[in-house]
Amino acid sequence: xxxxxxxxxxxxxxxxxxxxxxxxxxxxxxxxxxxxxxxxxxxxxxxxxxxxxxxxxxxxxxxxxxxxxxxxxxxxxxxxxxxxxxxxxxxxxxxxxxxxxxxxxxxxxxxxxxxxxxxxxxxxxxxxxxxxxxxxxxxxxxxxxxxxxxxxxxxxxxxxxxxxxxxxxxxxxxxxxxxxxxxxxxxxxxxxxxxxxxxxxxxxxxxxxxxxxxxxxxxxxxxxxxxxx
Length: 229
Prior knowledge:
Haem_Oase-like_multi-hlx; globular; about 0% strand; Thiaminase-2/PQQC
């Protein structure tokens, strides 16, 4: 890469993790339409729980922002996670296309760890480090969504009502791609104003959140049950 952007360095740093994400059986089956509806329902339930926590982290980040325009972006993203995306998840779960819930969903180990980390980072780290921590959810979802939209095109064309179609088209859509690009630009701006020590902390935060992205998808297909109470 030759652009000199700090986020390019973050992307290169996490290359092995991103390759592992691209190779996940969960995403392959989601793209070709062979993922079981039970597994997809579990994923959607966990993602709904995740979005609630993610919106809290983004709201805290908005309050720490260096200027009103930046604050507005993070606040709008929080509102979108809490309302628009969550509504899409609720619609999928209530559509009848997925197995009905038999009990109230509980955070998986990975989901709870991920949202707890993001909220803690937003609350206790600097604005720049917190922004780097929330970026993988924007950026990696945008990349995965774009690739899934291409691989799932035939599935969606054959069955527009396929339960995976709404999810794939949401994250592959141009408006979501643009939102991810804006989040990336804001992290670049934060890095430009950061010290070398802070930039190192930003890279660590981005890497840790990317690890959680990998684990989040993988544990939907390969769950890690909580120890019995």
